Fold histidine kinase.
Amino acid sequence: MPILFKKFARSLSGFPIHLKIYFMVVSAIVLLALISLFAIRISVTDTMSVQLDERVKSISGDVAARTGDLLLTNNIYAMQTLVNDTIDNYNDLEYVFILNEDNEVLVDSYSDGHVSEEIIHANSVEDEEFNHLLTFRSEEGIIRDAAAPVDKGIDGTVRVGLRDDSLETAISSVTFQIISFMVLLILFSLAIVMKLTRIITNPINDLVSLTNRVAKGDMTARIDAYPKDEIGDLTESFHDMLGTLETAKSEKENYLNQIITRNRELTLLNDLSDNPHTIKDFNQMMNHFVRDLVHELKLGSGVIEATINQQQEYFSYQAEGCPAENTACLEDWTCVCEKKEYNIKSVFPIYSNQQKIGQIKICSGDVLDAYSEKILDSIANHLGTVIENNELSHEIKKKEEIRQMLLEKIMTVQEDERKRIARELHDETGHALSSILLGLKMMEDAESPDEINHQIQKLRKLTHQSIENIHDLAWQLRPTILDKFGLKVAIERYMEEFKQKLDIDYDVLINGIDTTRLTPEMETAIFRIVQESLTNIFKYANASSVSVIIIRNDDLISVIIEDDGTGFNVDSMVNKDPSKFNLGLHGMQERASLLGGTFEIESETGKGTAVMVKLPISDESGESYENTYYAG
């Protein structure tokens, strides 16, 4: 048996793949159909046999039940009619006859009226048996004979014979249906298999064609690889084999180009490694860098445009044979040099903090290769970092200058304040106390009560005046009302005093801090910012109305001071070097920054000024008036 199987397998190996697939599919379908046919025939036969047995028993029992009264009255005619009707109603009945107690045929369904003794004695009913079923083969085929006793206590038997015609018909019908379905399934399967076979064999044929092309020397030949199957894997492996030599050569070239590219990049980046301390040093570094960039990449010219410290800067260099006076970049990015046109590569943008701040423009006689483009992209990215670091360094230096000037101003203000306090204590408070001493001396020398009362009234007036002067002096140093009653009351009180100095209209809107105190640091900062803003309005704005708005919203407090004065150019004032003219603005900005807030100014000449401060409030920043009282 194994030898025959090997011979059969060897004989199949000589056929094409698609024929092998057809044979296997058809064989599997035929085998499955035959197994299904036999299984269904057996199942149908068993089921139909049980149904026929129950049917013939039911018919015989029904006839026996209806025969009892007829047999009791010996109504032969009625019994014959019952037998004939039963035969007419059931086409597959072979016979029906009724026996008396002596097993003699009273009536039957045979046309000649003769029932063979063999059939009469073939089946009988045992005692206490409802009916008895017997199956035997006759000339007409298999007969199912059912014997049922007659009711009414009368001895007699009804015999019914049923042919297997319906069983044979059902089995033949099922067999025909299965065979028809099998034929249709084979045809449908062949159609699908033919399509699937093409999907399998076409890649193989393409692969064979590829091998023939490679055999003729075409090493660049490739075919589409069918993914996710063995043929696709084979095709990919074949492609890998063909690309081995080309890959090795390409890897060597790439490695060499990477070394060259890296050396060029490091050479150029080395020019940007210095840490210039001044703007002049930074500009020299950038000019030197542009020159090396043009030489290293063999360019015609190079231009770097960038916004540095909020000013637009340009750094350019032209190679030999392309002097600046003969170079012009047209609107379509064509670079003209000595009557020659050079194509310019798309500009390389420079980004800082995800914002475009400049670009590198390149003029080149040749199309830039991928490695040069990579170098320029890397340099553009690094330039963004260099420019950002330079701006940060410049900003730190500028802030340090501002801090130094603020410190000097604080010291100067402290010294001036000490002088003013000493002067006012000497001029006003000292004189008042001297007058009080003199008044007391005069009271000692007074002789009449009227004169004493007059001196007392005079001394009381001098005392009140001294107290008022000391109170004003303390208020100017630090308003105690800020510590005792909070920011809202302090601002309103200061606005009233401000109106006495400058007769203008003012509005004050304060929400959110009526019942909740801020931290002393935040209240002081807001008060000083408002104070400095109003001082600037008094000195420079020439305003007719002022608005002060302080609103607390959840974890943020907003402060807005507006006026309708002359206004000014914000950029020129804020961005210029620190001086006495903008030191107050920097001081307010510094106060907001120390508390983690923001400081903005909006102004336009002739349209007034708005100072806007936003300060974050932590969970611990506010306390109820009921629970907090600052010493003052």
Observations:
- Residues 483-616 form a domain with the Heat Shock Protein 90 fold (CATH 3.30.565.10).
- The first strand starts at residue 93 and ends at 99.
- Residues 370-445 form the longest helix (76 residues).
